[in-house]
Amino acid sequence: MQNVPEEWREGQEEGGGGGDGRMGEMLVKRKVDSERKKNGGEEAEKESLMMELTRLVQKMVKESSWWERRGIDCSILAAAFLCLPPAGMLLMAMAHGVITFKGTHLASHGSLSESQTWGKFWAVFFIEICGSFSAQAGVQGHIKMHHAHTNVIGLGDSSVWKAPFLPRTVYLFIAPLAVPIITPLVALAHLRGQSLALVARTVLLVTLGLYSQYWLLIHVSGFLSPLSALLCMLACRAMFSVPYIHVNIFQVRNTYTMPAVTYLCSVYILNQEQQSKHIGLHMFSSTNRPKRIYQMTHGVLNLPRNPLLDWMFGHSLINCHVEHHLFPFLSDNMCLKVKPVVSKYLTEKQLPYQEDGYLSRLHFFFHKYQDLMVFAPPITELVGVQ
């Protein structure tokens, strides 16, 4: 990891965060005030790069209709729910992918509603009922760790993705298929030490989600036996786990050893998505982190547009991941809308706007698997070395 140039360095007022994007406008105002107090005079009036870009993006958001801000993504999720009961196996798996990948991600960021109360409700609904995981653990890992400390070693680095005991072919194409079985078990592990009320809620809602899909398959879709319904559930939940781990590891950097169960869970569960999209990119020390705009532009990468992946995982996880990390409070559709503004601005300011193809990243990771996942030194040895 290179030493961070002086002009990249982060002042105290920026804090390196990226946490809950719902606080976007408040954070910008606070940053403006703190910069002016700190610098004073003419220097205080000079707009930082991140604040200037934020102003441009917020202008577009304010000029956008509710349909653009939230309606399009909510409609996609609603259509996915409607496709669940009568659909065939493939369509059912795609609908389930939209709900559990796109839905849980947007819900964790509060992007489905302007109300904080409804935002919390949707987070619990999508993460626990639909995703079979703990909403508290998901939000903690994704919002408060990964987005707040993207590519910061020991905090938001990608540590959970290393499984050196697995051969590359097993890691990339076989292990993810076991995720639907392991996911609820790992959710239970995250509940240790939590309050009885939280444990009871999570267990009940995860059970409700699993039973609801089983009930629909038996009573609506027409499955004749419990075994066939359970096999269908497993197939639907596992079908797109392989591309999901690809999408994640293609855009992430460094890792260290983790238990097998946690790895398998992280392929699928939302809260581990945050640990993903940055292998092969810049990493930073927690004591020498850059300003937010440098951190995100050097540590995040976009994949090209793909109709299937865009709809199933959402633009913020595929072709607008840079925009998502800069402005995590935006919905998928708004990330796509501001993309031209963000890419143009970064190019004009001579900042990187990193993009690479799906097959290119797969080739890179497959052939560099030993370096990235097996022979990589301990994470503590990477601090200070790029």
TrEMBL record:
Residues 1-12, 27-46 have a biased composition (Basic and acidic residues). InterPro entries: FA_desaturase_dom, Fatty_acid_desaturase. Residues 82-355 form the Fatty acid desaturase domain. One of its GO terms (cellular component) is membrane. One of its GO terms (molecular function) is oxidoreductase activity, acting on paired donors, with oxidation of a pair of donors resulting in the reduction of molecular oxygen to two molecules of water. Residues 1-46 are annotated as: Disordered. The keyword DNA damage does not apply. It comes from the Eukaryota. Keywords: Fatty acid biosynthesis, Fatty acid metabolism, Lipid biosynthesis, Lipid metabolism, Membrane, Transmembrane, Transmembrane helix. One of its GO terms (biological process) is fatty acid biosynthetic process. The keyword Transmembrane helix applies. It holds the Pfam family FA_desaturase. The chain crosses the membrane at residues 76-99, 170-191, 198-217, 223-245. This is Fatty acid desaturase 6 isoform X2.
